[in-house]
Structure formats: structure tokens, C-alpha cells
Design a protein that fits this description.
Elements (H helix, E strand, L loop, with lengths): L3 H17 L9 H8 L3 H7 L3 H17 L8 H14 L1 H9 L4 H18 L5 H20 L6 H12 L10
């Protein structure tokens, strides 16, 4: 059962997302968000420091749901497949971010979560290695989102498997 504070946070997140469907993010103010959410400004500032904070926390929640799932590390294709299907479920939210020039938030949150994942499974990994793998992974996912998530998550998971294990790409026979 959700606490009162969790319910307030969710109301504020959903209010901003709903407003973004009809209005530019840059033109939405805190007053509009609190009115749509049915909460006070005090409640807003107890939970968030800004509009940006709302989206970053919501995005972190979306991304962390799959990245924190325990899956055997040896099956990278399965891990990416689950993550990509999860991201596809939230495609409309990602489109809102892109429409409002906020795709950088996806990169910011994903890099943070990827770094934590790498350190969890590879404690000796250095900062440059983290940046290399996380940055490449996030860049591929952002490109996929920018292209409208046209590829099937299974297909993209196979591409990740190929990239991570440095297998040669093979052209399919036409």
C-alpha cells in the first residue's frame, strides 16, 4: 500500500506528464503542476526541487526497475532483451522527453545506473571502462528511441550481444 507521500509524488509526476502532452515543458510552471495534481506548493517542494527533478526521479524509477533485476550475468542478450521490452512499454514518455529536448535526461540517468551496475558486477572496473561501456550502451538505446524503437527488442538485444562479445556482424543472405 502506497504511503501518502508516495501518492503525492506520483500525482505530481503524472500531472507534469499529462501537461507535457499538450504544452511545452518550458512553458509549464509549478503552479500548473500543483493545481493539476491537487497538491499544495509545500507538498511539491517536500518531494521535488524543480520540474527537472520530477522527470529525473520518474525516469530513474523507470530505468531502475529493470536494471536492478537479478539475472545471470552470462546471458547479456536476455538482460538487454528484458530492458528493451521494458523501455518500449514507456515509449510515449520517452517521446515526450525527446519532443521537449530533454533526451539528455535519459543519458544522465542511464549512465548513473549503468555505472552502478558495472561496479556491482565488476568491482575492479575503472572509471574509463565504466564510461566506455555505459556510454556506448546508452548511445545505442538513445539512437533506437530516436528512430522510433522500430527494431524489435529481440533484434536489438542480439546487436548488443554482438557488440559486447565482439562477434563479427554477418550480413544476412538476401
Amino acid at each position: 500500500m502506497a504511503t501518502y507521500n508516495e501518492t503525492v509524488k506520483e500525482s505530481i509526476e503524472l500531472a507534469l506528464i499529462e501537461l507535457m502532452k499538450t504544452k511545452s515543458y518550458a512553458k509549464i510552471n509549478i503552479k500548473e503542476i500543483t493545481e493539476k495534481a491537487g497538491v499544495s506548493r509545500v507538498s511539491f517542494y517536500r518531494n521535488f526541487s524543480s520540474k527537472e527533478d520530477i522527470l529525473l526521479q520518474y525516469l530513474h524509477l523507470i530505468l531502475s526497475k529493470e536494471t536492478e533485476t537479478e539475472i545471470p550475468d552470462k546471458d547479456i542478450r536476455f538482460r538487454f532483451r528484458r530492458l528493451l521490452y521494458h523501455l518500449k512499454k514507456h515509449q510515449s514518455f520517452f517521446k515526450l522527453l525527446e519532443k521537449n529536448d530533454l533526451s539528455w535526461m535519459i543519458h544522465y540517468c542511464a549512465m548513473d545506473l549503468s555505472k552502478n551496475y558495472i561496479h556491482k558486477y565488476q568491482p575492479a572496473a575503472v572509471a574509463y571502462q565504466d564510461a566506455y561501456y555505459a556510454g556506448g550502451t546508452v548511445s545505442v538505446i538513445l539512437r533506437w528511441m530516436e528512430n522510433g524503437m522500430k527494431e524489435d527488442p529481440d533484434e536489438l538485444a542480439q546487436i548488443f550481444d554482438t557488440l559486447y562479445f565482439r562477434k563479427n556482424f554477418q550480413k544476412k543472405n538476401a
